[in-house]
Amino acid sequence: MVRAAILPAVGSPLEIDGIDIPEPGPGQVRVRLSAAGVCHSDLSLTNGTMRVPVPAVLGHEGAGTVVSVGENVTHVAPGDGVVLNWAPSCGACHACALGEVWLCANALSGAGDVYAKRASDGTDLHPGLNVAAFAEETVVAANCVLPVPDGIPLTDAALLGCAVLTGYGAVHHSARVREGETVAVFGAGGVGLATLQAARIAGASTIVAVDVSPDKEELARAAGATEFVVASENTAREIRSLTGKQGVDVAVECVGRAVTIRTAWESTRRGGRTTVVGIGGKDQQVTFNALEIFHFGRTLAGCVYGNSNPAEDLPVLAEHVRAGRLDLGMMVTEHIGLEDIPAAFDNMIAGKGGRALVVF
Fold first, then answer.
1. pTM of the model
2. What angle do CA 300, 301, 304 make, to 5 degrees?
3. What is the distance between the alpha carbons of residues 290 and 285, in angstroms, rounded to a whole number?
4. Residues 36, 68: one domain?
5. What is the pLDDT of residues 260-291, one digit of tens each?
6. Which terminus of the chain is more solvent-facing, meaning fewer CB atoms within 10 Å of its CB: N or C?
7. Domain with 95 in it
8. Contact 11, 332 (CB under 8 A)
9. Which are the contacts of 323, defined by CB distance < 8 A and separation ≥ 6?
10. In angstroms, rounded to a whole number, what is the distance separating the alpha carbons of residues 219 and 214?
11. Residue 137 — φ and ψ, nearest 5°?
């Protein structure tokens, strides 16, 4: 039996309880978690913005050590450090055939499975976003683990599984920021801090961080922001004033709110690019008129998992870490236990801090 944070029903508080996990079957891997990041997507699962079969063990941004493997697993072995990949591509669907593995139609096919039982009453449990990282140990499909690159501590490696892949990919794969371009990043939480660092790595000349909390300025500047703007109804105007009244070349929205997406769009120059990373609900309706779409010639694009291929991108990210260009530790503003996840959700809603990291 191991401890886990269980979501009994959508809209219900998490419950810390023991769960019984089976030994890995063919094509499965059992992992002892070292750390798991608390991501906004986990919050979206608890409140129904995103769907999850319940009861479930959430958590999808994690890293740990392989305890045991089932038959036919050859790319990892007991004792290996691994990063959890919550959205493994199948390699066979239409999106995968196009090379767009981040849009794989079967990436979450295992999320509806029963993978464990609640120790207290035998209730079947589902793995939230495939990997159920809010637990001391988990059992996942073999394609849900990737070897931790050399030189990356396991606790830091947890962030690579979502926040860093998403933020780095938004800049380098989706928006394709070029050296010397100007960038605005909306939201300075975990993904936003990774995005700011990615913009700095890309060689952006001006990097504007936008957040509702003025307390985020020091953290944002440490990640690479050259300017900081407290979000208001004048945000787009302030950003244009910082860029010769033109607007930024690229805006990356990491919040998932209609007003923020609209402001990000308005903050870019004519011909600018806006990449939306934040996950919003169906009630968040963004409106544009036909004339402005023509006149401004801007591009608005969604971004899933940073448009990344984790197997290819993890070694690239690791090289940035080893070279000192990417600081994983600075993104973490609190280390917590499983029982502290609800408070981390509250801080997220209030716009406080960067990434909260569950350390086992």
1. 0.96
2. 155
3. 16
4. yes
5. 999 999 999 999 999 999 999 899 999 999 99
6. N
7. 2-148+328-359
8. no
9. none
10. 10
11. -140, 160
- Are residues 219 and 172 located together in one domain of the fold? yes
Pair (222, 350) in one structural domain: no
CA 216 to chain CA mean position, Å:
19
296-322 confidence digits (pLDDT tens): 999 999 999 999 999 999 999 999 999
Amino acid identity of residue 360, one-letter, is F
- For the ranges 48-52, 56-60, 349-353, the one whose mean pLDDT is highest: 56-60
Per the prediction, the chain carries an average pLDDT of: 96
Say how many domains are in the chain.
2
Helix ranges (DSSP H) in the chain: 40-47, 94-97, 154-157, 163-169, 190-202, 217-223, 235-241, 258-267, 290-296, 310-322, 341-350
Tracing tokens 């996950």 back to the chain, one arrives at: 279
DSSP state of 174: I
Residues in the chain, how many?
Answer: 360
* Residue 38 belongs to some domain of the structure: yes
Residue 55 carries which DSSP code? S
- Is 90 exceeded by the pLDDT of residue 111? no
Among residues 10, 87, 14, 16, which one has the least CA distance to residue 360? 16
* Cα 148 to Cα 317: distance, rounded to the nearest angstrom: 11
91 and 15 in one domain? yes
Give the confidence band of 217 by pLDDT, cuts at 50, 70, 90: very high
Kindly report the CATH number assigned to the domain that includes residue 32: 3.90.180.10
Torsion angles phi and psi, residue 160, rounded to 5? -65, -25
pLDDT, residue 239, reads 98
| Residue 110's pLDDT band (cuts 50, 70, 90) | confident
In this structure, what token pair is assigned to residue 51? 């769907």
Same domain, residue pair 71 and 97 = yes
Is 158 a member of any domain? no
